[in-house]
User: Fold this.
Amino acid sequence: MGSVGRPLPSTEIEIIDENGAPARTGEIGEVYVRSACLMKEYFRAPEVTAESMTEKGFKTGDLGYVDEDGDLFLTGRNDAVFKSGGEKVSCRLIEETLRDSELFHDCMEDVVVLAMEDHFLGKVPCIYYVSRPGSDFDQRAIRRYLSSKLPRSHIPSEFVALREIQRSASGKVVKDALRDPANRMSPAGND
Assistant:
């Protein structure tokens, strides 16, 4: 239950840990796929092809693990985890912690957390959100709440108010729409 199943007979899956070694059973790492059915390259994108098509197979960008029965479980995306000042930060953990709070239900309709560039730390978390109409959005209250639940590296550096968070048919956030100036709203909260 909860797995995406087992690979097709002509397909091999390998989970690679953060050190580039094969992960143990049940250990989360990046999912690599090898198969005669895979594409040969990205259309007119040699740099992306070189990054994705490795000697270990196709680097999917998905994080997951294989259990003792050989079933694959996906847990997130590799781009949802980044290093900030040498510490790992999980965008998904920040989002889930926020979504589980009364603050989210009181003042936000939607939220997504992404890494943004930072001159000193490399990258830091940024919260993109859609305010609930008529609510009082308080950045300080959100920072205090997250500080009580998460490590300091997970506390957002910036909040960006949006009209909407667009998602594809598969539920993935359309990142270009987050950066569209026409989608931005003036912040309702305080710094």
